TrEMBL record, chain A:
This is ATP-binding cassette domain-containing protein. Keywords: ATP-binding, Nucleotide-binding. GO terms for molecular function: ATP binding. Transmembrane segments: none annotated. It comes from Bowmanella denitrificans. Pfam families: ABC_tran. Residues 11-254 form the ABC transporter domain.
Amino acid sequence: MVRNALSQTILEVKGITKRFGGVEALRGVSFKVNKGEVVGLLGDNGAGKSTLVRCISGIHPPDEGEILIADKPVKLNSPMDARDAGIETVFQDLAIVPEFDVVQNLYLNREIRSSNPLLRWLGWLDTKAMTKRSQKSLNRLNSRIPSLNEKIVNLSGGQRQAVAIARAVSWGAEVVIMDEPTAALGVEQSAQVNELIKLISSQGVAVVLISHNMQHVMDTCDRAVVLYQGRCSADVAIADVDKNDLVSLITGASGLQFAESA
Amino acid sequence: MSTTSPALARQDWATKLLKRQYFIYYMFILVLAGFAIFLNDTGFLSLSNFMNIIRQTAPITIMAVGLSFALAVGHIDLSIGSVVALSAIVGAILLQYVGMPLAVAGALLTGMLVGLINGLLIERLRVSSLLITLGTMGVITGITRQVSNLESIPVIDPMFRALFGNGEFLGVPGLLWWTLIFALIGYVVLNKLVFGRHLLAVGGSPESARAMGIRIENVRIKALIVCSLCAAIAGLLYAGRLAGARYTLGEADLLTVIAAVAIGGASLFGGRVSIIGAVIGSWLMGMINNGLILSGFSTDEQMITRGLILITAVAIGAREARNG
């Protein structure tokens, strides 16, 4: 493993099973993610990646198995539970409001209220404080976002992605799950997002990255967990494999020989 | 980067000025100037006439503020006109048995109940607000006609008539106070409070709002309750000013209110509203009515004008949505 100094498990998934009617989407999936580690979650369409992410982010509570954060079991029955446990998910649609500006999106549903007790009771927004803190959290990410008061519709795809990631990190997430963050982006913007992923992992945040782009996985991940037909078929250090190995693991061409070695 | 060509700069400037949010002001000034020229010998351009317009328009203005809340979350509420009559009738009937505070509370609660029912039906049945409120509009109108027996119910209570009708406070007409208070509350809630932020988030991108943990169903139901509450207050204002309630109150207001809000810059598809625009829009509608009456036109022409204004506003909004 590359990051020995940080080898401290932050997220552990133990024997997760999820059924939809008669279909077993996940059949006892287990894996661990260490602090500050970037783990690629790979698998073909229908392998169970999305279901697994939905379990970990509290959208679909699993039927069996448990999820541990820093060795403590957590019950994730809603996205808010996951958020409280320190798990943030950046979905493909980014869950941002296009008509809102950067600050409004960063603080959506955790708005800072005025310090005046009466105004606070009314729910009066403290825009100044939110702007100030937004600036801080974006600075921490070396953000290239032009203005905090810019509406999201006026930002590029990469900048939108950066806002969503900044929001996840600034909510104090210890684990950030990203679903295909570069799927809709051009080469340069993808590179910026990959840089951002490395940056937040260097700050101790664990990242679970779902991607179909093997080059990005090779570039940004420390480890790869491969799902095949609802099971965890491999758990490998990226340093030990190449792109072709990953592809054959995903398609099921090569079996479990890597799983033992991890 | 800094070498923006003058032509481009001019174009930016032009597009900015042509933005829909400013359209209401141009329209207002244009209509004002038009009537001022054509009606210069009728007293149109006098302070007392403008006070009159604002007073007569007060119920419309308050309904426009309320409808802005529904539009903010992406709903439309067609039942507001029927709530006006219902609330006025309920208030007037209650005044015959109980004191003013209870009668007012009863009327307002009736309005809020309608909003709650609208909201619950929309969320539970997952049907568009357009269809649900079209249905409740029919139901409420029927109930109001039955309860009132198609008769006017007089309002005698002097306190009620002063408060909601032609009373004055600090030398300013009560109806102007009502207008200003509701405009201010609407503006503050939508622009300064967490609740307003959530309303606009739900209207702008319901899925994102839900993913961020906002309970979007609750927010939408609350918006409809506010909308109906405003319509109920409009009903009391009519009852106070006219010293009585009748099932026909508010009948023709739906089109006026929607046109006022649309011309004021709100998107009829949710996520963007302007309270100031809605207020000015309602005054514009009032001014047009007033001007048409002074010009000797009938209510038929007023209705035609309202319809044309709504179509114009929607056309501008659609063009802007296409051009981004």
